[in-house]
Amino acid sequence: MGVVSINQGKLRGGEAISDNGVPYYEFLGIPYAKPPIGNLRFKNPQPPEPWDGERDATAINEENICSQIDLMKGIPLGSEDCLYLNVYTPKLPETNTKPLPVMVFIHGGGFIHGNGIIKKDLGPDYLIENDVVVVTFNYRLGVLGFLSLDIPEASGNMGLKDQVQALKWVQNNINKFGGDPENVTLFGLSAGSASVDYLLLSPLAKGLFHRAILQSGSSLNHWAINYEPKKIVDQLLEKMEYSGSTRDERAIYEYLMESPISKLLEASFKVIANFTNNRISFGFVPTIEKDFGDNEALITDKPYKLLKEGRFNYVPVIKGVCNKEGYLSSALKPNVVLDVIENKNFVDHWAYELKGSNKNKLNSEFLEAYSENQQPDDEGDKIGVDFFTDFDFTSGVWLSGQIMARKGVPVYLYEFCYKGKMNFLQHYFGMQRKGAAHGDDWCYIFKHADVSHFGDAKDKEVRANVCKIWTNFAKTSNPTSEGISVEWPEYKEDLPAYLCIDEKITIKTDYKPKKMAIFKEIYETYENNV
């Protein structure tokens, strides 16, 4: 047992042993904010409250995941009382011991589902074995995390502000667990990665972290931002059979505050399911906020504009994708992949309309770029999968990384290509496809009770390499500084190198130049004029 005293009171943690026999301490279910219940629903997070005596942090209450709909069963899960985190540490502080680097993980799930506290989903074993402190946490999801009414009581982005509050908690308390508050690496997967991007863009997070790792997600990805939050609010009210004025934000706020959580969740789930048919979309996601002059807005301008103008937090970053991200669209929205394959329609899937003759030009350019280098053994949906790999994920991740690099930020780009027995999404959907799908890299970072035990010797070697690279970066800002056979150079315009993570780790250059050029043209033309 380990006992620590933090600002809110004493915590009693437990002891655990990693798969490879490394002992560590775990402190589970620690409140990092006041429960956002009652009149705090939709409001920005408040600091945590103290407790008397010694709080048991040896077990997790699984009911304290954030309110969401079970995507398989369609029923409500979790609680509004959900702002908790876990801390895993190889050692507690002793006199004259050097504090350890801290890695804070933001979970994915499209901003509408998932959690950061259930250990069977997010076992820290393989990171902990590299002598770092690991923090995982929940944040408000869906309508509770991202409703935007353009009023101070429901300004939007509450889930992202929860993440800022968690980072503040880390700054105030992590030294008590042996962690270094001056050496915090923020990392995330999918919507968690897009969240990291938003925190890079936000003045609210300035100084709260010192490095960032972004796995398959960007604030530039179409699914990670809603430019028309009123539209989804109107659809929500319709599903809830609201009879008041849809123009009276105060009345809407009062109605939603008084609504039972089950009704709110079920109606929002119906809205999300039908929000758009031409692309992956999760509806209740980050939005651009109105500035009420209270310095509490997380983001008040378009992400692409902020990047281009250099208005972001300058810290070293790793950014990357899986090489077949588009398998997610083929699983969730097969009709849109079919539209590209059969109708050669690349241009009607954006969140905004591509205009006139430019639309025809772009469609021709996309068709040429994605039809090149076809091989006899290619899978039949390759053109569609490759397009949605780039449309859904790669273009935003890659282009934002290039912009940051031009501004002088150390940027390391990678592509994860490994197909093994622990590829998470392919296991989840029962796929047997070439390459790595969206989320397939999850179990090469974290232990997952349902998937990790399938790994063979080669899978474990790849996992060891990835975890070593990630923790090297957290320790030194150099991802290949120790125990890695290649030297991963920073991305530069005159040397556009990136790391290819497969059975062997190699360095490649010039990532999809023709395809990325088309996406860049669209971002330049449209993203500043939405």
Brief summary of the model shown:
The chain is an alpha/beta fold and 530 residues long. It is built from 15 helices and 15 strands.
- Give the tally of β-strands: 15
User: Uncertain spans, ≥5 residues at pLDDT below 50?
Assistant: none
Overall structural class, as computed from helix and strand content, comes to alpha/beta
Q: Rough shape?
A: globular
Which range best describes the helical content: under 10%, 10-25%, 25-40%, 40-55%, 55-70% or over 70%? 25-40%
How would you sum up the major sheet? 13 strands, mixed
SSE string: EEEEEEEEHEHHEHEHHHHEHHHHEHHEEH
How many DSSP H or I helices? 15
How far apart the termini lie comes to 54 Å
Averaging pLDDT over every residue, what do you get? 94
Integer-rounded radius of gyration: 22 Å
**Proportion in β-strands:** 15-25%
Topology, please?
Blueprint: E1 2-6, E2 9-17, E3 23-31, E4 54-56, E5 68-69, E6 76-77, E7 84-89, E8 100-106, H1 125-128, E9 133-137, H2 142-146, H3 158-173, E10 179-189, H4 191-201, E11 211-215, H5 229-239, H6 249-258, H7 261-273, H8 303-308, E12 317-322, H9 327-332, H10 334-343, H11 356-371, H12 382-406, E13 411-416, H13 424-429, H14 457-476, E14 497-501, E15 505-509, H15 513-526
Parallel strand pairs: 2-4, 8-9, 8-10, 10-11, 11-12, 12-13, 13-14
Antiparallel strand pairs: 1-2, 2-3, 3-7, 5-6, 7-9, 14-15
Helix pairs in contact: 5-7, 10-12, 12-15
